[in-house]
Amino acid sequence: MLLVALLNQPALASGAEIGGYFRVMTRPDFQGGDGKLGYWNLYGRLLNEGPYATVEMKLPILEQRPASSEVWTSVHMKVEGGSVGNADSGNGNLSNFRMSQLYAEAGNVLLDRVTWRVGSLETYFGDLGLYDMRPTTLFQDTVGLSARYRDERAELLLGFGDAGYALRGSEYMTVFSPGASARFQLGRHVQLGLGGQLYHEPEVTGNRYAPHSTPGLDYEDVLRGEVVQSFLEDNPGEAIAFPDPEPTSNTSYKAVATFGFGGFGPLVWNSVQASYQLVHPDNFVDETYEGETYTLYVTELTDERSVLVVGDEVQLQLIPGRLDMALAGLWGLHQDGDNAIAPSSDARSYASAVARIQTYLSPTVHLLIESSLAREISTNGNTYRNHQDSIFENDAGASDPRGLEYGDSDTRDTWQGKAGFVLNPLGPGIYTRPSLRLLYGLQHSTQNNAFGNSFVEDLDQYNEFGNVERHWHHVLALETEVWF
Amino acid sequence: MLWLVLGCLARQDVVKATTPLPTVVAPVMGYLDRRTVEAAPDGLIEALVGELELRGLPPTVVGADRWAESFEAKRNTTHRLEMLGDAVGGSNLVLLVETHATYFSQMNGRYRWTVEVVATVAPANATDGALSSSFAVPVFLDFYHQRETEAVGAAAAVVARNVGALLDEYLGGL
User: Fold this and answer.
1) Is residue B14 part of a domain?
2) Do residue A260 and residue B105 have CB atoms under 8 angstroms apart?
3) Beta carbons within 10 angstroms of residue A306's beta carbon
4) What is the dihedral of CA A219, A221, A222, A225, to 10 degrees?
5) Which of A7, A31, B99, B136 is the most exposed place for a label (fewest CB within 10 A)?
6) pTM to 2 decimal places
7) Residue B3 domain flag
8) Which domain, by its residues, includes B44?
9) Looking at the domain assignment, is residue B92 inside a domain?
10) Cβ proximity of A452 and A47 under 8 Å
11) Number of domains in chain B
């Protein structure tokens, strides 16, 4: 019916519209880093991100005309990637880019105020700008159909599709994914949003990429790659008796919420965003023993991983036209009910706070100052190397060649300070772009050499190159960021 | 230092009217999904007034109560200019700035909108001498609750700059 309705409309001539985003920078690092102040956005996105470019095309096929209830339709294509020539190790190679979204939208079809979309369905409630994080993202991995109703007070979204290629790639298996979200504008000053997405990967007997579970797997053996070895030690000469995988199904989900308020006094807006995700289980890993490769289906060992993230960002206009401030906080808890023995990115917690002030020396020349403080804790033991000779230490701070821990601390504390001049041709505003920036950044971390680098990682390299104790890190950055 | 110098550079000279030409201004904002027509946000009006004053064109902003109802039916720029010319006497010029905002997409955490603008300047009593400029301004809004009004407001600086160029062109030809 949608197609028939579209075909019955006269075509209108209109041009494609291009929008996009990019950031590019150079940050010479005389301490041997790769140009980022710290490891990741937990310390604030500023100086911790590399180059990035996004181009989105919108082609109105049937243009939406003012005050018209005619059918309209447009096609969107988005290409993005994290590399720019001479600015990073990817050197702008197009292999670093991908067509991340492609969809068609149509309105005034069947239902008033409803926009239909077929293709990429990604959506989110908002952004924690200081972190460049969007915890409330839904359908990032889904291609399908959605219907979005929108009026002045509410926005309702229903969608469903397939997330199989995003989750499984070349080992594709259908992952049916329905979801919904609702956002309500309560007057001018309060906003509330809730949403969720379900993932269901069905049981399919005979499909080796469908979810299976190999019986009797021990987590530590899988981690060490010693499942087959252990089995054959217990069952000499019985390789043929290695257990076959049993078909099963997987279900996971993500729930998101947002609460925002503002628009009074110096408070521009405060936005709380939260998400809880039961991470979709992995399917299989390969293990080779004595020249034979075995496929181990690890569904049962990866089905208890969850991620809880809560973030808040507040924008304040302290002296209109003179001084603005943004404050943000983030707390994350990653849990893995199957893993109680080894540090991993699935078993950790973190908390951080970031504050940025921007004062306007003139409408176009601004002074920016930002600071952040963060703590990261590994739930399952040591994972950070705090000293130049930590390479000798892992379990309980002692050297153990069979140890699963890494380094000599389970905690990393990081402080960053950043300051510099910003040229904003379009005037004041913390998020006004384009921005041309000259910034200096300083980091102190309890971890040694806590920045992207090529320092020694193993004993052989240590013996050859040595290492130094270095907790302070400086970078000078010349960068620009543009939305267009 | 470079930034400071660049930021403090004086703006280019503009074309000024040899004698003050009183000008009526109608800053109009329409919508894609309804017929409502209303006054553009204050930020845009102030920016337009600034551009007119800079050029020796004493501005009079015509309130939406004088044209909103009529403009809901009159969607054509020429018809609107004629209606304004008839409605306001004693002015030399009419500046009609018609805007509407179109939502583009969510992009890198922001809400991208496009503000479509048709700016027209004409003698108050002769629309056939009109000079017009159409352009689109991309704007990025931080929040979901910011809609058409905020989008047009966010485009104010660029719209005013382009309208200024249109006025320069018009005055240069007088």
Assistant:
1) no
2) no
3) 15
4) 160
5) A7
6) 0.90
7) no
8) 20-172
9) yes
10) no
11) 1
Going from N- to C-terminal start, the domains of chain A cover 115-338
ipTM of the shown complex:
0.86
DSSP helix/strand/coil, B165: helix
Give the integer Cα–Cα distance in Å for A115 and A131.
30
Distance from CA of A292 to the nearest CA of B (A): 46
DSSP 8-state class, residue B45:
H
Element at A469 (helix H, strand E):
none
Euclidean distance between CA atoms A118 and A139, whole angstroms: 12
Q: How far apart are CA A309 and CA A291, in angstroms?
A: 43
Q: Is A60 on the interface with B (CB under 8 A)?
A: no
The string of pLDDT tens digits covering residues A147-195 is 999 988 999 999 999 999 999 999 999 999 999 999 999 988 999 999 9
Question: b/e per residue, A41-77, with b = 16+ CB within 10 A?
Answer: bbbbbbbbbbbbbbbbbbebebbbebeeeebbbbebb
**Is residue A412 within 8 angstroms of chain B, CB to CB?**
no
- Helical spans, DSSP H, in chain B: 2-8, 42-54, 68-73, 77-87, 148-154, 156-172
Contact B32 A155 (CB under 8 A): no
**A259, A426, A478: best to mutate for the B interface, most B CBs within 10 A:** A426
d(CA A212, CA A298): 8
